[in-house]
Amino acid sequence: MSSNLHCRDGAEPSARPTREPLPDQGSTMCGRRLAGRVGAILLAVTLIGACTASAASTPAPPATPAPTPSPTANPDEALVADLAAVWSNPYNEAKVAALYAPDATFYDNGVNETSKGLEAIQAKVRKYAALGFKVKNTSAPIRQANFVAVFQKAGAPEPVGPVLFVVELKDGKIKNQWVYPAP
């Protein structure tokens, strides 16, 4: 009788003396040890995979703050920045003409006034610029099809009270513009 059980597959021998196993008994015992080890390995791989997946799904914080996008990074941001600049002092006729279509209409619901055509809009902008009017964007632009909206503060000599500017674009120019006092 042998004092150690030797597995045919090269697994380590048993630590305690046993009697000689029957031919199929030895492979069963080695199989159980092997199955236990394989199970432990599979459990470890599963846990490591779960931890890795969890770490991969949680983004690491950026090392440095993200840069503030420039107004030209997004055409809508550039548009609302240009609008704020045009409606702020000093008056620039060429910039107004670059933004508005010749047949544009401006609906100023704050003072219940409508300006039709580029010349009328230029006259309105010129009048506001003479008063020292200033416009400051207070939100990111919102686009829906060919409409762009932005919240702003507007007034003279300093921007006050929120307003909502909504523009309708056609062929890259403002076709219609609405200004609403915001609550």
β-strand percent reads 25-35%
Shape annotation = globular
Secondary-structure content class: alpha+beta
Summarize the main sheet: 7 strands, mixed
Query: Mind telling me the CATH class of the largest domain?
Result: Alpha Beta
For the terminal residues, how far apart are their CA atoms?
97 Å
Would you give an account of this structure?
Helices cover 37% and strands 27% of the residues. The chain has 2 domains: 1-60, no CATH class; 75-181, Nuclear Transport Factor 2, Chain: A, CATH 3.10.450. β1 and β2 (113-116) form a beta hairpin. It is built from 4 helices and 7 strands. Strands 1, 2, 3, 4, 5, 6 and 7 form a 7-stranded mixed β-sheet that branches. The protein is α+β, with helices and mostly antiparallel strands and 183 residues long. The radius of gyration is 38 Å and the shape is globular. The model is unreliable at 1-7, 42-47, 49-55 and 64-71 (pLDDT under 50). The protein has helices at 23-57, 75-86, 93-99, 118-130; strands at residues 100-108, 113-116, 134-137, 142-144, 147-155, 160-170, 173-181.
Give descriptors for this structure.
27% strand, alpha+beta, 183 residues, globular, single chain
